[in-house]
Amino acid sequence: MKLNVLIPTVGLFIGLIFGAQLAQTKTQTQALRGNESAGGGGVWYKQNTPILVDFFNIDSNFEDTSSFREWTASQVEVDFQLSLTRANEYEFREQIPALDLALTIVEKWEQQFLDVTGSHIHSAFMLPMQWNFSYRKLSAPESYLPLPIIQQSNIKTVAYYESATVDIDIQVWNEAGVITQAGTFIHEAFRRMQIGWSNRFDELSLQQATALVVMC
Q: Which sign does the torsion angle of CA 175, 179, 180, 184 carry?
């Protein structure tokens, strides 16, 4: 899979997604809304490979899932808490390949002219955001599913945002490849933005934005 994140038209499309959603009224249907207790970052197991649900907004099939396993993933062995600042960011990036990939993608978006997507996401990674890795099984509402072929029974929650804290299930995390792990970081950063903006963009828009930022 080639991760080319320097496509200006995609950057503009991200802006259009958020611009359109920010203009919507509060009559937006609750079924599509993201909330403080939203469904969390979900992965769907295809060919025994956990793939972030968001990515199916880009490709509905992923006939070849090898690209989601070809890069070395970030393995976590013990519970720990990650609190990012601009000062310690690079120290943690050296330790966690998925974090480094996620922020590398975000930085490329920051370099795009007239596109503020990257800077907003980058800020959302930082304190007071807390990233908690543990073996505790996450209990979350059902994920919003972009395609009818994806069944809730095949979904596992890898991360769950609440009150500026992201809880990450180490077991599910370790089964995923680095692309899904990086996408999880970005998905939850978007979640913080979504909640901070009073849910003015919906769950489908959050998933589409995550998929476009990571994969295009």
A: positive
DSSP 49-104: EEEEGGGGGT-S--S--GGGTSSPP----S-EEE---TTTHHHHHHH-HHHHHHHH
pLDDT at 12 over 60: no
Q: How would you classify the pairing of strands 130-134 and 165-169? A: parallel
Burial 130-165 (b: 16+ CB within 10 A, else e): ebbbbeeebebeebbbbeeebeeeebbbbbbbeeee
Buried b (16+ CB within 10 A) or exposed e, 187-202: bbbbbbbbbeeebbbb
Token readout for 26 is: 């509060």
Query: 155-162 and 80-82: which strand pairing?
Result: unpaired
Task: Quickly tell me which residue has 């611009």 as its tokens.
Answer: 19
The model's pLDDT over 121-160, given as tens digits with 9 standing for 90+, comes to 999 999 999 999 999 888 766 666 666 556 666 788 999 9
96 neighbors 125 (Cβ within 8 angstroms): no
- Rounded to whole angstroms, the Cα distance separating 182 from 108 reads 14
pTM score of the predicted model: 0.81
Cis? peptide before 8, omega within 30° of 0? no
Q: For residues 216 and 202, give the distance between their C-alpha atoms in angstroms, rounded to a whole number.
A: 21
